[in-house]
């Protein structure tokens, strides 16, 4: 039956715990579909919302702005000194506060979306001893700023110094323009590959206990949860940048890779399914929310189906509903991270 004023209960569904899920299962991009789906792939690449537009293009623009106006010149980076390192640290802080703070203001302070399309109806935790300062948001900000940003900046600083001193292969735009552009398109794939394996490694029991469990305190993640990581995890997570020590690249590529790694998690952790704001803004990751919810599934992202290939995929159907087929016929997850 159709109603004139559809509410969120008609889009998606709720389980007995009051959790919401979209009315479709998680899907991977059509890029690696078999048999190939050329039309769907082109649409995914160039359509809206798609691989390029809006988010990769927005982050590319952020990188260009950073490079042109907020980045110390390569000559200055030839010798380590406080002034240019502090400038990069401050720039990164500003970018992180802009992105995570922006999402937080929009969805959690001004509550522009209410709880519509919010996977977990609860707001960020206050009072639980498991979080620093007994406050999930403050805890997440603490780790993002004192673990995430320092490691992110340290890699960038080291690489700027290495480019300036010809320690690593430097790619000139004018000499190889096609390769120069291609590198930007390949970086997100490299990032996803790196993330999947480093993330699986972090789920190795001893490492999970000592390191990665800190990120997983966020069973109900928010915008600031993305970079809320133990220092060892930050070190591993940002090692995605090390590729530029081997593959010829320009500092702009390195910066794009680093900023994508630092700034994109906020949109994948804010806990809402896009498009939000009356269907205008594509964002969110039910895929990664499920990782926080069930933690044994969905280690990667949605472009390259590593999770499908390596048997760790959860398609997002509620395990409470026995009538639903459950991702590739696998057993439903038995481990529920949600404790309260
Ligand atoms: Zn996460
Ligand atoms: Zn994890």
Notable characteristics:
340 residues, mainly alpha, two-stranded antiparallel sheet, 47% helix, disordered N terminus, binds zinc ion
Question: Could you characterize the architecture of this molecule?
Answer:
There is one protein chain. It is globular, with a radius of gyration of 21 Å. It starts with 12 loop residues before the first strand and ends in a 31-residue tail after the last helix. It has one domain (55-294). A hairpin with a 5-residue loop joins strand 1 and strand 2 (20-21). The chain is built from eleven helices and two strands; from the N terminus they run E-E-H-H-H-H-H-H-H-H-H-H-H. With 340 residues, it is mainly alpha-helical. Mean pLDDT is 91; it is low at 1-9 and 320-334. Bound molecules: zinc ion (2 copies).
């Amino acid at each position: 039956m159709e109603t004139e004023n559809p509410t969120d209960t008609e889009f998606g569904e709720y389980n007995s715990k009051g959790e919401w899920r979209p009315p479709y299962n998680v899907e991977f991009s059509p890029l690696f579909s078999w048999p190939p789906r050329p039309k769907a792939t082109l649409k995914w690449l160039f359509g809206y919302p798609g691989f390029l537009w809006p988010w990769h293009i927005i982050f590319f623009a952020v990188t260009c702005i950073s490079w042109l106006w907020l980045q110390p010149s390569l000559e200055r980076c030839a010798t380590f000194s406080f002034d240019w390192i502090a400038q990069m640290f401050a720039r990164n802080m500003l970018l992180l506060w802009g992105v995570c703070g922006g999402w937080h203001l929009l969805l959690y302070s001004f509550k522009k979306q209410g709880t519509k399309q919010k996977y977990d109806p609860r707001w960020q935790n206050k009072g639980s001893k498991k979080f620093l300062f007994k406050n999930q948001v403050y805890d997440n900000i603490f780790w993002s700023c004192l673990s995430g940003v320092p490691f992110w900046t340290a890699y960038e600083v080291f690489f700027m110094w290495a480019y300036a001193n010809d320690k690593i292969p430097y790619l000139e735009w004018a000499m190889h323009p096609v390769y120069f552009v291609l590198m930007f398109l390949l970086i997100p794939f490299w990032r996803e590959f790196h993330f999947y394996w480093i993330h699986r490694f972090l789920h190795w029991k001893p490492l999970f206990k000592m390191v990665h469990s800190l990120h997983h305190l966020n069973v109900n993640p928010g915008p600031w949860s993305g970079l809320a990581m133990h220092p060892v995890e930050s070190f591993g997570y940002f090692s995605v940048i090390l590729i530029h020590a081997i593959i010829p690249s320009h500092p702009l590529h390195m910066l794009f890779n680093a900023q994508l790694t630092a700034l994109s998690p906020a949109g994948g952790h804010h806990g809402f399914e896009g498009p939000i704001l009356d269907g205008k803004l594509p964002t969110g990751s039910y895929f990664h929310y499920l990782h926080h919810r069930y933690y044994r599934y969905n280690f990667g992202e949605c472009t390259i189906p590593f999770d499908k290939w390596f048997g760790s995929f959860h398609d997002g159907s509620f395990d409470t509903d026995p009538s639903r087929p459950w991702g590739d016929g696998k057993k439903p997850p038995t481990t529920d991270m949600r404790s309260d």
